[in-house]
Amino acid sequence: MVVLLLAAAGIVALASGDLLDAAAIVAVLLLNATLGFLTDLPARRALEALSTLQVARASVMRDAQPREIDARGLVPGDVIVLEAGQAVPADARLLSATELSTIEAALTGESLPVRKDAARTLTPDVPLPDRQTMVFQGMSVATGRASAVVVATGRDTEIGRIGALAAAVPPRRTLLERRLDTLGRRLALAAIGVAIIVALQGWLRGMPVGTLLAAAIALAVAAVPEGLPAVVTVAMAAGVRRMVRRRALIRRLAAVESLGSATVICTDKTGTLTTGEMTATVLALPGGREITITGAGIGASGALIEKGSPVDSRADPQVEAALRIAVLANRASLGTGAMTAHGDPTEIALLVAARKAAHDHQVDAARSLEIGEVPFSSERMFMATFRRDGTRTRVFIKGAPGRILDRCNRVLTSDREEALDHDVRQQLAETRDGLTSRGLRVLAVATGVVTAATEQEIRDLVFVGFFGLTDPPTPGVRETIASVRDAGIRTVMLTGDHRRTAEVIARDLGVLAGTATVLDGRELAALPADALAGAVGRAGVFSRISPEDKLKIVAALQASGEVVAMLGDGVNDAAALRQADIGVAMGRRGSDVAREAADLVLEDDRLETVAAAIEEGRVIFDNIRKFVFYLFSCNLAEVLVFLGAGAAGWPLPLRPLQILWLNLVTDTFPALALAFEPGEPDVMSRPPRHPGTALLSGRMARLALGYAVVICLCSLAAFGWGLSWWPGDPAHATTLTFATLALAQVFHLGNARSLGPVVTRGRTLANPSAIGALVLVVLLQWLALSWRPLAGVLRTEALDPTDWAVVLGLSLVPAILGQGLKTWKTLRKRVSRS
To answer: Where are the extended beta strands (E) located within 78-193?
Structure first.
């Protein structure tokens, strides 16, 4: 609205012959558009570098022969062949599957590989995460192999359906855009009203119509801060640069400020709140021993710690036996150097735990020859390998605790084997339940000598211990959640994981605080429409939810007045990212669909970066308010000077070109400097702004009016003094008014820079741009009075030392008064606190 108003003012100025005025307004509009383009361009280029174009290939049966083709050539009815490590090229129903599991986190949010079963019978209404007979486009095969018949391609796939769901969400205008439009409408009405009043005053006093028209147009332009769009763009551009340094890329410039207004952060769990990599964190051994395994993720270093001291696995038979089983009953592999890994995430986690203990699994594997295997299945719930141990055959087995314990009759305690009697079984059950209650996935390990390498002979084993595994919290997440909570922002977890897992992790991270509740997808679907907003507002965790559920949650929060920031990385997050007030996608592991739907992309995939971006968003809004406050008080002062002079029966206090000079020089440069003002000390300790908060609150508007009145009175005093001392030279009085008004406005910059006194708060030199703007404006104003070519255009006269003393004395009054009041308020607060 401000831009349109400026364009209209430019047309009026051009029609009335004020070419300089029109040219200046056009220049400001062009500057605003250029700054927006140049700021947005690097962010777009960086996003293009994040995305990689890959054309998927598919192994398909054609004429009874396997062929590899471009996945885009698949059609429903094709039979595809899937192997571990491949990406699924289309939605397909399984025909046969051998130990198949797929990683579906990007689609469903499920952090663990999903086991598939071609023979399973499912009902038509089964939720997406539980469709074990289906594989979905874009997901990867973790283990096993399968054949499947293609049932959907392109837009008909689950991925395509989510894309259509995201496309159906209309673009949302940011809070800043809505606030600027409101301000623009108010300024338009004010500009028209002021021009009419001034014209009527002059007409009633018999002034020439041409002079009145020129003055009215100039004053209307003065009432409109033409520098506002450019300054807003510069403020957001400065924020974008600061965000880039903190690893955040803005895709939509106007969305920068929205983060500062966020009241709720909706985030997925896997890879955002947690590392996204399964990690073995606990080894529980018979006899009540518990070993802590430090370090999170595949590439992390770590150690085995018991009661605060490192554990030497080679000197500890129990630990050595557990790690040996974890390595040998395993089909995953770890690389060297960058710690690349292949295989099931759970098995990778066990290998990483062994490596932390310096347990060389390659040597172990070479010591004995594997002679057989019992692969994992959902029915067995364990896997085992057989290896030659001298003249004997030894089995190494891991799996569900109940299935493993059923095949054991002894237990390894210290360095000997003991009978696994009822009491010991009870103790082990309590240990298992304790680990489960902590949200850990529990695997049991055992070993023994068997007579043959067959599943039927796996019995009478020695139980060795439990491994507790989890997707651990990302470092720094707890602190970040606490810091945004202090800032009045609630964090809500949206995940495809099971309720118990999500609840334990949420409590550990501080997401479930106070009376916050947990809702799963089925409970959410059963809620009536009138109860949805209330239930969503109370919930801190949503588990087992679909992409439609995420969209519904975000919309419900917005309907209840929340400003929602949505964090996501998967295709299933795309619609919610578009619906949110600001969508935040992950740059490293996020899908292209998620990044395209988002307003902000995190280069480092860290929640801390979101907190930093929120801080920058708040600083940007504060700075926008500061220069709106500055421009409002300065422009209002110009208007009041005209109204005051008219009420006193004086001639026009300023010429039209002098008004334009004030708008372009004394307004624009100081306002631009405010865009670089550092944040206030309490920026992250105050609650979020209400969405309905205006750019100028009632208190700030009253304060701006007060400063405008003071600046006006000082300027009118200079004008009156000039008229009384040089009654036959109104140009001299106009020059005094012009100089006083200009310097009073630029000295007033200190009042706008901070909520407290600039000097005592140590902010005098904190913004070099403000110091530079002050020096520049003073220099330009001196040129406007002393350099004859410019003075001739502006029709100003040279001032003598007495004139300068009057001008400087009066122009410093608003700054001295403002800083004095702020110092007094600060001292009063300190006294009241003490």
So the answer is: 79-83, 91-103, 114-115, 134-135, 140-152
In angstroms, the CA 162 to CA 133 distance is 20
Could you give the CA distance from residue 558 to residue 562 in angstroms, rounded to a whole number? 5
Phi-psi region of 649 (alpha: psi -120 to 50; beta: other; left: phi over 0): left
- Is the backbone of residue 337 left (phi > 0), alpha (psi -120 to 50) or beta? left
- Which residues on neighbouring strands pair with residue 408, listed in sequence order? 461
**What is the number of alpha carbons within 13 Å of residue 647 lying toward its C-beta?**
8
The answer to whether 150 and 78 are in contact (CB under 8 A) is yes
Report the catalytic residues.
268
Find out whether 674 and 630 touch, Cβ atoms under 8 Å.
yes
- Is residue 701 within 8 A of residue 797, CB to CB? The reply is no
In the numeric block, the tokens 């004997």 are attached to 392
Tens digits of per-residue pLDDT, 612-646?
A: 888 888 888 888 888 888 988 888 888 888 888 87
Q: How far apart are CA 629 and CA 282, in angstroms?
A: 57
Instruction: Report helix, strand or coil for 167.
Output: helix
H-run or E-run covering 713 = helix 698-725
What are 746-758's pLDDT values in tens digits? Answer: 999 989 988 767 7
In the block, residue with structure tokens 């108003």: 5
CA 66/CA 79 separation, integer angstroms: 9
340's CB contacts (< 8 A; 6+ apart) are: 334
Q: How many angstroms from the chain centroid is the CA of residue 132?
A: 34
For the chain, residues with pLDDT lower than 70 are 1-56, 106, 109-112, 163-192, 194-195, 198-199, 201-230, 253-254, 256-257, 300, 336-340, 360-368, 591-593, 691-692, 756, 759-762, 833-834
CA atoms of 265 and 490, how far apart (whole Å): 6
Could you tell me how many residues make up the chain?
834
Q: In sequence order, which residues have a C-beta less than 8 Å from that of residue 333 and are 6 or more positions away?
A: 341, 342, 343, 351
176 and 257 Cβ atoms separated by less than 8 Å: yes
